[in-house]
Amino acid sequence: MTEQTYSLTELGWGQFYQSQLSPEECSETTPLRVTEVQRNTLDALGEGGAQKVPITGLLAEQGITVGDWLLIDIETCSPLRVLDRKSEIKRRAAGKDYVTQLIAANIDTLFIVSSCNADFNPARLERYLALAHQADVEPVLVLTKQDLCNDPQKYLDDAAREMPGHAVVTLNATSTDAQQHLAQWCGAGQTVALVGSSGVGKSTLAIALTGQDILTQDIREEDAKGKHTTTARSMYQMISGGWLIDTPGMRALRLYDVREGVDMVFDDIIKLASLCKFNDCAHDSEPGCAVQAEIQAGRLDANRLNRWQKLQREDTRNTESTSETRARNKKTNKVYSGGRARAKMKRARMD
Description:
Layout: H1 15-18, H2 23-28, E1 29-37, E2 41-46, E3 49-54, H3 57-62, E4 69-73, E5 79-82, E6 88-92, E7 100-105, E8 109-115, H4 122-134, E9 138-144, H5 152-162, E10 167-170, H6 178-181, E11 191-195, H7 202-210, E12 219-220, E13 225-226, E14 234-237, E15 243-246, H8 259-265, H9 267-273, H10 290-296, H11 302-319, H12 322-350
Parallel strand pairs: 8-9, 8-11, 9-10, 11-15
Antiparallel strand pairs: 1-2, 1-4, 2-3, 4-5, 6-7, 12-13, 14-15
């Protein structure tokens, strides 16, 4: 059986990556696209077919993820370096250390998968939207299981109201026409990534888009929870010619350095905030607050404002360094100490 090979263009290669190569590298190296990363090795595709590459030296130091492009020396077949990324999706890893976990690189579109049941959660979906916008990647909300829902239009309306300005698609991932609903983002040379919580149908959708047998497990109907059988991030060719990066379901998505992305998700509130009387308005009880005026008029949901403020605070905490955290806590304690001291002096004068 002849091994399938691909042109670099079919793998997603373009001028952005070509411009990073020196004249010598153009003749002495060959690019590979990373399709899966294990502990000590990675799988990659190039014009010569599939290769397994050890993760050593610079690759281990630079960090590497699915979707990356790396250069291989033609004579020695050894990896040289990872090319700069056009886009990267990342989160802060679990734990107290400030460690960034890469999810996928060099993608064009992020399919944010939820379902037309109890899993639909605007607060969770807004986190993924912020990741996409920060990476300058087009987000598409994909709502699965419409065939199991009495009123899928309700979820379309909720998405339009809670997350305005974003593309939303509802579908049945098990139907034969599922891929047609997403075809415009899946053409040759394009790369998409699937993200979402466990049990929403990502693996079923991946089967529909790729035609490959990716195992799935049933969900519990009472709470719409389930197990995601994808345990590693992998890249597959789609039926339409593009590439799909499937990711394991995430129990927690800790935002990291995505302030601009958060503000883009809540662009409507940002525009309102610019109309407030005070530049440092906290949008609480200040006079002349345009945001609160919209809430009072019933044109803005107060929960949406609360979600925006929560994501801003979380991103600040997760992005700042340990030294910055100590400095912030020290400043806060100083303010509190000063307030306690003034209160004590006031009580003493009263006595």
